Amino acid sequence: MMRCLRLLPLLLLLLVVAACGRGSRGDRADTLPVDQLYELAQQSLQRGNNDRAIRYYQRLIARFPFGLYTEQAQLELAFAQYRGGKPDEAISTVDRFLKTYPAHGKADYAQYLRGVVNFDRDIGFMDRFVKVDASARDQGSTRQSYIDFSRLLRDFPESGYADDAHQRMIYLRNRMALHEINIARYYLRRGAPVAAVNRAKYVLENYEQAPETGDALAVMIEAYQRMGEQELADDTRRVLQANHPDHPYLDGRRIDRGKPVWRRLVPFG
User: Fold this and answer.
1) Percent of the chain, pLDDT > 90?
2) Average pLDDT, integer, range 47-59
């Protein structure tokens, strides 16, 4: 017992020394020159330690508000926040960068990153294991991502990110079109053919190059028939046959039946 009591002060001293050591390491961000602080932040980012990278980049920007290191640090901070699962913070950082440096040589990357953050915003934990129909979700982030990429193509048509942005826009366009078709099908199931026609027309008017235009025409045919507008239904069927001759609706598939929920949740087939 006495021996334990004699060792107690030594243990306390070791704890104090360890705490001081940790405090000293934590204070490095307040004492290092800008180049070394940037290097630490970049190393943390490369090693996947996003939280540490974020702390270092934020401290660098606070201590050195101007200069090339700070400009690059803002871009890398946004990427670290995005990769660290903080999309709102990443968007805020990108927006500050674009507002402060609208003519920066990497402004196209900043705009592209904004689109990517919104593109991936809806991807959750379950999506990594289960095939969930993304078109069934709220499309706010999808629309914003489409806007972000369209601004990139408008403002930086020669950007190295333009091709990828264009491909993502095609995917987003089709996803938004499918979302509208799902709603139109829902209206048919609920006995609201007029609302279904309006949704289908919206797809034809706004997503004319999307594959879902065939589904939109099929929805309109079904809705017109339920409304007793056989002439309109026949006219629309001729348009569907001319533009989508292989559409399943022409072979008798019911357009108001979407993929069953349990099938959407099974990651096979």
Assistant:
1) 73
2) 96
- Domain residue extents for the chain: 28-85
Please answer whether residues 221 and 235 qualify as being in contact, where contact means their C-beta atoms are separated by less than 8 angstroms. no
Coil, helix or strand at residue 104: coil
Maximum pairwise Cα distance, the chain = 102
Query: Phi and psi at residue 227, in whole multiples of 5°?
Result: -85, -5
pTM: 0.77
Distance CA 200, CA 217 (A): 7
Q: Which of 217, 147, 209, 219 is CA-nearest to residue 183?
A: 219
Token readout for 255 is: 């357009």
Q: Give the tokens for residue 2.
A: 């006495």
Lowest mean pLDDT among 12-21, 94-103, 172-181, 243-252: 12-21
In the predicted structure, residue 91 carries a pLDDT above the cut 90: yes
Give Cβ neighbours of residue 200 (< 8 Å, ≥ 6 apart). Answer: 180, 181, 184, 215, 216, 217, 219, 220, 223
Distance between CA atoms of 43 and 244, rounded to whole angstroms?
54
